[in-house]
Write a structure and sequence with these properties.
By secondary structure, the chain is α+β, with helices and mostly antiparallel strands. The protein contains four helices and seven strands, in the order βααββββββαα. A seven-stranded antiparallel β-sheet has the order 1-7-6-5-4-3-2. The chain starts with a strand and ends with a helix.
Amino acid sequence: MTIDETAERVIRLSPERVAAYAMDWRNDPEWTQGIRTAELTKEADGGGFGVGAEVTRTAQFLGKRIDYVLRVAAYDPPELLDMVSVAGPMPMHVTYTFAPHPRGTLARIRVRGDADRFYRLAAPLMARKVRSSIGKDLNDLEDRLLEP
């Protein structure tokens, strides 16, 4: 079963400000549900973070520890960060987009994946959990950015 979930939220700040925080992998544990650690394990071809860079995340999902690696497939700040999994329990594609909006920024997260093996049985539950998690991610992102 394929999972394809999207959440969006208008955040009362500029796309540059929202994207600068959300696209920085060092902030992942602060606003992304379940992420315990995030580490840049491979730099982009030109160094640092960008296309080709890889971030290893350790998460807790459905009561299990999950380690996975996301490779940056597209990076165009402040509009787009697109990542695909290259190691982990299931193929996954995560896309963050940030677009100007009359009230600030339209922030969107889309997660696509193909549940296989054990996860195939749990796919409907996983889809609901992913939808809930990315909605909470955007709430936490806004809260983190707007806190005094």
